[in-house]
Records
---
Amino acid sequence: MTAETTETTEIIETAATKSEIDQRTERDLAARTAGWRLMVEAVRPQKWWIVVGVASGFIWTLARLAVPQLAARAVDDGIRGDDLHLVLLLTLAMLAVGVVQALTTGLRRYCAFRIALRTETDLRTRLFAHLQRLHFAFHDEAQTGQLMARANSDLQQINTVVILLPLTAASMLTMIGVLIIMMMKSVVLAVLALGLLPLLNRAATRFSSRITPANLALQEELSGLSGVVEESLSGIRILKGFGAERLQVKRLDDAADGVLKQALRAAKLRAGFMPLIDLLPTLSLVAIIWYGGHLVLDGQLEIGDILAYNLYVLMLIWPLRMVGMLVAQSSRASAAAGRIHEILSTDVAVDDPPHPIPLSDGPGNLLFEGVSFGYGHGRLVLDGLNLSIAGGEAVAIVGATGSGKTTVARLVPRFYDANSGRVLLDGVDVRDLRVSELRDAVGIVFEDTFLFSDSIRRNIAFSDPGASIETIERAARLSGIHTFIQSLPQGYETLIGEHGYSLSGGQRQRIAIARAVLHDPRVLILDDATSAVDPSKEHEIRAALAEVMEGRTTLIIAHRPATIALADRVILLDGGRCIASGTHEELLASNERYREILARSDSTESSSLEGSE
């Protein structure tokens, strides 16, 4: 390679790197701008508390500015004038002003914290509500730990800056008042005392430009750490089962080191900026004593004026610190708010139609008309599927892994929407129904049973907390779990541990079945509902399923022959299409592909059982 070629390559690479940096900077700026808009929007409902906070801050500022003036008069006119009565009056006035200052300090701080806490709560509620409405495709890709970080640490960053804003505004008023009073006494002395402020402004601007990317990187590292912690706790049984505790601790250490590295980088930047905030008042005092002393000796100023100047300069210490903290925190808060805005601006995708059609009573007929669907930009999982299920009919969907059988079940309650074609419930396209009404009509028992850390009663009545105990017991009887619950010391009020791990797999699954049939849905979906149950106990679940399926449209996603046999009809899927239909016995006798799939399932299950013995 020639030197000229090498130089050209380096120029191209440098240009590409610069372009990437520019694009990243533009994205960061856009995110921060969106973050500020979100914070302003979130704070707006607290406008009356903002007015009260601003008013109390204004009174607090006037009180603070009055104290040095009263002190100066007490020295010059009272003490030097040998007027004890005036000294007494001025000290009483200072005491009264101090009381006003104390009261307004409490009021303005209460307003600031109330506004911040209300804003944080409203944003958390809004974020959580939006996460609940977001489609499954979003949750398929999102990391739980990162979402938790947004709902906690990111909102805490916003809380802090919302507290600082009104407090810093009052401090800025103090700085302006101090500047005006100083100018009225001596322009030269004021310039000497405050002449370093432009330097502070320049330093703050430079600090902000450097701390922003550091804070963005820190927030990303914190999200990653939250993800590792969440996975470690949720998957503790897997970790212990594989003896992988040390590996996970190492992973956690690496994530924590990443947080530490970015936090130290941000701390180093702050450590370089804050000393300037501390140094400025000291330099101002030096200027006041040096030049102000000359003015006193020349008779142009009184000693009380020098005292007032010193007090005013001391007043600047905390406001300058507040400005420094606000500059640093604003960067973190805008980055955090930008991340929250990113979620809130995510399209719900699956939402109510503009003019929903009411779902009338019906037997639960299901119809798939030319349905095609693919996850993201991947291949089509369903390709022109046509399938009709009569009301009250139990249909099993069977196929190899990736054939689309679970996808069929997910399209009925609109966990996803078909790319093309239609899914109809009792003659109505499911996309024309209210989502809540559609899901009330569909009961689902998932393969991975999730129970909440609550009582059995509340778990069964999760979708209808106001359900009567009679309704709950009826659902439990249908699912075959009532007798077991009654045998417990606290019956339906028995508390179960996280995810219900204190119960057996069969018991958890039957509670899930009871939860699904509580509303007496017209369509019941069993998504591999027996796959996680010990085969020796499967007959208990099948008996419960047969009971709840009676006279109800049921879609069974299964691979175990005994569960498939519960269906009136079996649909064999391959390549996203229906390639065969019939009873379990008919397909077993006539379809080679069907026999292969069942044989493969039996082989996999047998291997799993042997490995567990």
---
Amino acid sequence: GPADGLLRPGDLLTSVDGIPLSGATHARAVAYVCQAASRGHVTLGVRHNRADIQPLGIPAVAPAHQHQPYDVTVTRNEGEGFGFVVISSTNKATSTIGQLIANSPAARCGLLHVGDTIVAINHLPVRNLPHPEVVALIKRSGTTVTLTVLPPD
């Protein structure tokens, strides 16, 4: 039935923990889900896609567009790392996620993947930045860092 708790293809996510998603970007919606998941539970508002009802003009939250950068905010506790390893390439002038540590904040978030290119750290572009400076930016972030990442081709 409509309240069976199952999500089906075409369902519209309308809210996350009571936060309406109308007009939210995909990245913002994913961030809300990620933040809720880090607390161990999430309440989703869902409108099932039924052929007999007309859409209300609320844009559906589209799947992430491949090759579009998006923001991922990772929050860690004092005394733990963010849980990702950055690899910088001198010949490509870019930094990428080289490893995710199991059960780390970055891994639990579920939005970072090995091979993602780091476009910016806390909204500061990092292309052509030397590796030690990239690492320093992350270390200076305190317990929360926002990475703008681009999935691999």
---
Amino acid sequence: MKREKILLGIVLVVLGVIIHLLPEINNFLFYQINNFHFHWLDTIMLPITYCGDGTVLAIVALGLWRLRGWRKFLWLVLILISAGILVQMIKYFFPSPRPSAVFPDIHILGSVLKARSFPSGHTASTFGLISFLSGEFPQLGTFLWVMAILIGFSRVYVGAHFPADVLFGAGLGYLVAKIYMVAWEKRAPDKSGA
């Protein structure tokens, strides 16, 4: 695996931390995205944000079991559980308010969330999932990455997260998947017959 692939995740995590530590930038970016709303876009973004829910991820994982077998299914489950545990640990040790707890005048779609904003669990899980699936189904790579980016964007659009939460979550999920994938590549038997 190339260093550039791991580097992308590190850059996203570092960028997420930097923006998180600069609330004026985080807030500005949040308002730029959250205030850019239209009724027709609302009807699209809410279903997109739900694509990052655990139920949807479980259905995708079960589909992978059917298409690629139990071993790949277990690998994906390990990625998702690891990313989820890391997200919850960070949320616990570094609690951050949600945008709705900070600003009274934001555009919210779906549930009003108040606590534990940093990092975005939806985004971490989605980027972990897509990192793995794009390796398994390279012909779907572009579509999968566009969906991952839209899900991350939607978390800010619907008022659930700040941009820093999404950037950090994306980098975390991506890194978890890539680290496991590197470990699995090293354990895989040489297929060249040598």
